[in-house]
Amino acid sequence: MIKIDAYDLSAYIKSQRGGALLTILDEVRDLVFVKDVEGRFIFSNRAHLAHLGRKESEVLGKTDFDLFPHKLAEAFYIAETHLFETQVPVMRLQESLDAKGQKFFSTAIKFLVCDKHGNALGLVGSVHRIAPQDSFDLEESKSQIMAILRHQPGVTASQLKAFEASLPALLDKK
Q1: What residues contact residue 61 under an 8 Å CB cut-off, 6+ apart?
Q2: How far apart are CA 32 and CA 38, in angstroms?
Q3: DSSP assigned state of 72
């Protein structure tokens, strides 16, 4: 969980435009986004916009249901609803499609953003794209995400085991 001293995440993000943190997030190659509690995108870095094949004006204020096929948007919605209900970070290793229809593997982590009193304001997500032909990259990403997750409050041992267990099934698809 990330805590900020604000009561409106959208206003907070707008006030940070041009600042160092959002500038850095805009430059990373991972897909980084921030959503409000209604599931509307309020920040989408350049990599995420490129992945979606859309301009910022076409993404901000939209939900997954506006941008993705219904089945995929529904899966995102269910996972994020669970995040808001349990405050347990979402972590996945998944096969996905980009805007060009190319399949790829990715690791995804989503955390709550809360005010200083612990009230949910939204979520931040980070998706790391992995080349499907590169099992070394899959192993490296798995190790990195496991190291990050082991240090996050609220992540349970069963979640870590489930994440580790998902890797062989994806590797078998190659």
Answers
A1: 40, 41, 42
A2: 18
A3: H
Calpha distance 34→42 (Å, rounded): 6
For residue 85, give Cα distances in angstroms to 32, 81, 97, 106.
22, 6, 28, 24
SS3 of 1, please? coil
The alpha carbon dihedral of 130, 111, 91, 83 has a sign of: negative
Structure tokens at 156: 């349970």
| 3-class secondary-structure state, position 123 | strand
40-66 residue pLDDT tens: 999 999 999 998 999 999 999 999 999
**Domains of the chain, each with CATH number or no CATH:** 2-172 (3.30.450.20)
Say yes or no to pLDDT of 142 above 70. Answer: no
Q: Which residue has the higher pLDDT, 106 or 76?
A: 76
Report the pLDDT averaged over residues 121-128. Answer: 92
DSSP state of 133: T
The position carrying tokens 């304001």 is: 121
Pairing, β 90-97 against β 103-114: antiparallel
* pLDDT reading at 74 higher than 70: yes
Compute the distance between CA of residue 156 and CA of residue 91 in angstroms, rounded to an integer. Answer: 11
Q: 30 CB contacts (<8 Å, ≥6 apart)? A: 47, 126, 127, 128, 129
